[in-house]
Write a structure and sequence with these properties.
Elements (H helix, E strand, L loop, with lengths): L1 H10 L5 E2 L4 H4 L8 E2 L11 E4 L4 H11 L7 E4 L5 H13 L3 E4 L2 E2 L2 H5 L4 E5 L2 H13 L4 E5 L3 H30 L3 H10 L5 H12 L8 H17 L5 H15 L10 H8 L18
Parallel strand pairs: 1-2, 3-4, 4-5, 7-8
Antiparallel strand pairs: 6-7
The structure holds NADP nicotinamide-adenine-dinucleotide phosphate.
């Protein structure tokens, strides 16, 4: 995610410095005009530092290191982390006089390449206005939802839907196949219908041709469902479908299916329905590639 976001900023002509733990992965960004640095501390002289790593622990570690010898004017944190983690971060950054925006995203690396990444943002409105041109450069725009950590809740809700929808999409696709129709034919209908969406379309190649090239790992999805369940408990909102989906995902992780895309949920569903899945080797669009 971070790579694809940085590539759009570099192509947009930003004065951009990039750090990644595994430097080789970031190295190709140099050809788009980004400076790939060796030390995180080198980012501290920048006006805005965008952070895109994995969990809150990782976010904390990279921000502490980035601010060890200086400080940027603003940190825009884009990883999917908890409300509590985000609030803790805001407290420590504002104590240092660094502006902070919570700006999690919707989309995967391919979505970013297609220019369709979106951000949900919370924090001081004035800081949002300063960051907005760069958020726009990375995708299809941002939604400002208010002060504090509200963006975290919006993103958690979004990813709970992602988990529940992929599980349901796998269930109905297997039902349709077991009843006798090809998966590509069923999904073609669904994608053209009012129920079709950018998401159902871009997951179609995975479900038809069993191309499980990873866009989002099962463990990252589990993290987000856990964040959803935790938020549900804190706000006393029942999350029955989320609980069930989390358990189904856990079964898949327990079977060691952790390295491929989360859409491998269809393999679990097929097994439970007593059918062996084969690729349909059918050319199907993902709604993103032109
Ligand atoms: N993929 C999606 O579809 C998607 C969509 C929306 C939001 N998100 C969220 O976006 C974030 C990134 O997701 P991703 O799919 O890009 O994950 P990823 O492919 O696993 O990449 C994680 C990145 O974080 C770095 N990292 C992890 N732990 C670190 C640490 N302790 N110190 C320094 N660097 C660390 C990794 O560095 P290395 O390269 O050295 O491993 C890598 O650059 C996650 O919070 C995820 O939940 C993902």
């Amino acid at each position: 995610m971070g790579y694809a976001m940085a590539e759009r900023l570099a192509r947009g002509g930003c004065d951009l410095a990039v750090w990644n733990r595994t430097k080789e992965k970031a190295a190709p960004l140099a050809k788009h005009g980004a400076k790939v640095v060796n030390q995180l501390e080198e980012l501290s002289t920048k006006d805005i530092v965008f952070v895109m790593v994995s969990t809150y622990e990782d976010v904390k570690a990279v921000i502490a290191q980035a601010l060890a010898k200086g400080q940027p004017k603003m940190v825009v944190e884009c990883s999917s982390i908890s409300l509590e983690g985000s609030a803790e971060l805001r407290k420590s950054l504002s104590a240092k006089g660094v502006e902070y925006l919570a700006a999690p995203v919707s989309g995967n690396a391919k979505v970013i390449k297609a220019g369709k990444l979106t951000f949900v943002v919370s924090g001081p409105k004035a800081a949002y206005e300063k960051a907005r041109p760069y958020l726009d450069m990375m995708g299809a725009g941002s939604s400002y939802v208010g002060e504090g950590e509200l963006a975290r809740i919006a993103k958690i809700c979004h990813n709970v839907m992602l988990g529940v929808v992929i599980q349901n999409l796998c269930e109905i696709t297997i039902l349709a196949q077991k009843a006798g129709m090809p998966r590509h034919a069923f999904l073609d209908f669904l994608n053209k219908s009012v129920m079709g969406s950018m998401f159902t379309r871009y997951k179609t190649p995975a479900l038809v041709n069993l191309d499980f090239h990873v866009t989002f790992t099962p463990k990252l999805l589990r993290k987000d469902l856990d964040l959803g369940l935790e938020a549900g408990r804190n706000f006393e909102a029942p999350m029955p479908l989320t609980s069930l989906t989390r358990d189904l995902l856990q079964q898949m992780i327990g079977h060691g299916m952790t390295e491929q895309d989360f859409s491998t949920l269809i393999l679990m569903q097929a097994k439970a329905a007593g059918i062996e899945l084969r690729s349909e080797n059918k050319e199907v669009g993902d709604g993103l590639s032109s």
